[in-house]
Design a protein that fits this description.
single chain; alpha/beta; Rossmann fold; 15 helices
């Protein structure tokens, strides 16, 4: 069985976001699963990318195909070119981990699509109008896929209800975090230098995951201003790529009188992000909604207590290892953070439970289940 995977997102801005983390984690897990199985598995994996770079070479035995066409979005090229490409490469199962699936495909070729969330449908205005149109087209085409992968039961339920897709075609494959003990040890050693370079001091709270409207960063800053009134040394780090709402967020921080204690360093490389997790007092993640919540797993893996909203997917990921707050109420967010800041025993217990819970998520398990879905689709 030859499997084709569209990894064009790794050549776009999505490489540094959750989609990129998902693709890299899945490829690593697939490489391990196929290598371990050896001759018992007959899958050949073909990666469709924009260039043969370090990302592809690190995938080991996988064949790669360098494409010269669009990196992002749903284009006419996607619908015209994929059928011929898939036919030439004799692809039996084609996996689209982010972009739209081709409406037409060779006879005998099955299609699997990962839908990370339906936020643009559930919360109109959460993405720019052009992006919203692209997402809506993507979701329409998803109805033609043979199997849908969702990262959480909450997203699976949304896909079934909102897209009208038969429940038997939608499977849950939780994502994972691959931060290692060695990376954590290196982060601890680098902590003083990294904080000095970024102009930070402890204690600080951190939010990671970008400046998207759905992240409720306005609520994060409002909650921080309540905490900062009685904690003169406390700082806030909002890590992640800036976006259309960043200017308004800076203005809000200024109005609340906390701009000098809020840091927005933009995209943070993986090594530095692990350092920031290790030095923080808590991750503050009160999103309006999420398809999964990778930052929760990252923080818990690093032993960082978490305050999250009660969004269904976040509660699936965090379980009893997080504190939960009302996303619409900054005072609720501030109160949960205050508990972690003021109760060392609680913070230590959350850190311990978080590490144990995060350890239950594995990219190898995700890859194993994904391989099973490929086989189900091809049957």
């Amino acid at each position: 069985m030859r499997i084709g995977i569209d990894i064009r997102a790794l050549g776009s801005a999505s490489a540094g976001r959750g989609v990129g983390t998902y693709i890299r984690g899945l490829l690593g897990g697939l490489a391990g699963e196929i290598e371990e199985a050896g001759a018992q598995r007959s899958q050949d994996v073909v990666l469709f990318a924009h260039q043969r770079d370090g990302v592809l070479s690190s995938a080991g035995r996988f064949e790669s195909v360098a494409l010269s066409r669009p990196r992002r979005g749903i284009t006419l090229w996607d619908q015209i070119a994929w059928p011929l490409l898939l036919s030439r490469r004799r692809i039996a199962v084609f996996h689209s981990p982010f972009y739209a699936v081709p409406r037409l495909r060779p006879s005998g070729c099955r299609v699997v699509q990962t839908i990370h969330d339906l936020t643009p449908l559930k919360r109109p205005g959460s993405v720019p109008p052009r992006a919203a149109r692209i997402f809506r087209a993507n979701f329409q085409l998803a109805r033609t896929a043979d199997r849908i992968i969702a990262p959480s039961e909450a997203t699976r339920a949304d896909v079934i209800q909102m897209l009208g897709i038969d429940a038997g075609r939608v499977q849950v494959v939780p994502e994972a975090c691959d931060i290692t003990d060695a990376e954590i040890a290196a982060a601890d050693e680098a902590l003083p230098r990294t904080l000095a370079r970024l102009g930070l001091r402890r204690p600080y709270l951190i939010h990671s995951g970008g400046h998207d409207m759905i992240k409720n960063l306005s609520g994060v800053v409002a909650a921080f201003s309540m905490l900062a009134a009685s904690r003169r040394e406390l700082m806030l780090v909002i890590a992640g790529a800036h976006g259309p709402g960043s200017a308004a967020l800076i203005a809000r921080s200024a109005r609340l009188g906390v701009l000098d204690r809020v840091r927005m360093p933009g995209y943070i490389p993986r090594a530095d992000l692990i350092v920031l997790y290790r030095g923080a007092s808590a991750l503050v993640y009160p999103s309006w909604m999420e398809g999964f919540g990778l930052p929760l797993l990252e923080a818990m893996t690093c032993g960082l207590p978490v305050v999250a909203s009660r969004a269904a997917a976040l509660q699936e990921v965090g379980g009893d290892a997080c504190l939960y707050a009302d996303a619409v109420d900054p005072a609720s967010i501030a109160a949960a953070c205050a508990r972690i800041l003021d109760e060392p025993d609680l913070a230590a217990d959350l850190a311990r439970r978080g590490r144990a819970r995060a350890a239950g998520y594995s990219w190898r398990h995700a890859a194993r289940r994904t391989l099973e879905i490929y086989e189900e689709a091809a049957a």
